[in-house]
Specification:
Blueprint (H helix, E strand, L loop, with lengths): L1 H11 L1 H14 L3 H6 L2 H11 L11 H14 L8 H10 L6 H17 L2 H11 L9 H8 L8 H12 L8 H17 L5
Helix pairs in contact: 1-7, 2-7, 4-10, 4-11, 6-7, 6-8, 10-11
Length: 195
């Protein structure tokens, strides 16, 4: 199956693959990337977004199968994106809900895994992800939330990562604040403490 994705990637998405790889490579050289390189953020990201991150090749068939079953059973959309896929979607800006987009995303995500380490991919995603209004990347999130990037706590990391699922609008409602806080509580409770 992996070979099919490699072949399809060479046929259908070479420009997107190269674009995505170039953005990651450039991001790795930035000061903003250095602010993201923190084990506490990495642990919170894995807990909140992709528990099997260190074990898959950019796509997670277990999560895909679970999402398909739950979507059919409950008639509600459930995601199965890995951190690599979320990074791909952030870079390409393609949020279309279609099978074609999802397949391209899987192909590009698996190509990232062959070019960069898991930690580079995760920290790149943390660096450039959208966290809400005036938080278009991690540096802006630190500033808006008034967190010190040198002394990030597990709670603060959890609050940042919670905003990946629930981006904070300019004027958040009480319901949105509760969602962010509840998600942060879950991430904090389940994140192993960094050594």
């Amino acid at each position: 199956m992996h070979i099919l994705f490699l072949l399809a990637g060479k046929i259908f998405t070479p420009k997107e693959i190269q674009l995505t790889r170039n953005v990651v490579a450039k991001t790795l050289l930035t000061d903003d990337y250095q602010k993201a390189v923190h084990e506490t953020l990495l642990s919170a990201l894995i807990t909140g977004e992709d528990r099997r991150f260190m074990r898959h090749n950019g796509y997670d068939f277990t999560a895909i199968a679970r999402a398909i079953i739950n979507n059919l059973r409950n008639s509600r959309i459930e995601g199965a994106s890995t951190i690599e896929q979320q990074l791909t979607r952030t870079i390409t800006g393609n949020y279309e809900i279609s099978l074609k987009r999802k397949i391209k995303e899987i192909i590009i995500a698996s190509s990232l895994k062959r070019k960069f380490s898991k930690k580079e991919i995760a920290y790149c995603y943390i660096t450039i992800a959208y966290y809400g209004w005036q938080m278009n990347n991690l540096s802006q999130a630190y500033k808006r939330l008034q967190f010190n990037s040198d002394k990030i706590t597990t709670r603060q990391a959890s609050e940042i990562i919670a905003r990946l699922r629930y981006p904070e609008p300019r004027n958040p409602s009480i319901a949105r604040i509760k969602k962010i806080s509840g998600r942060a509580d879950f991430i904090e409770k389940n994140t192993p403490t960094a050594n």
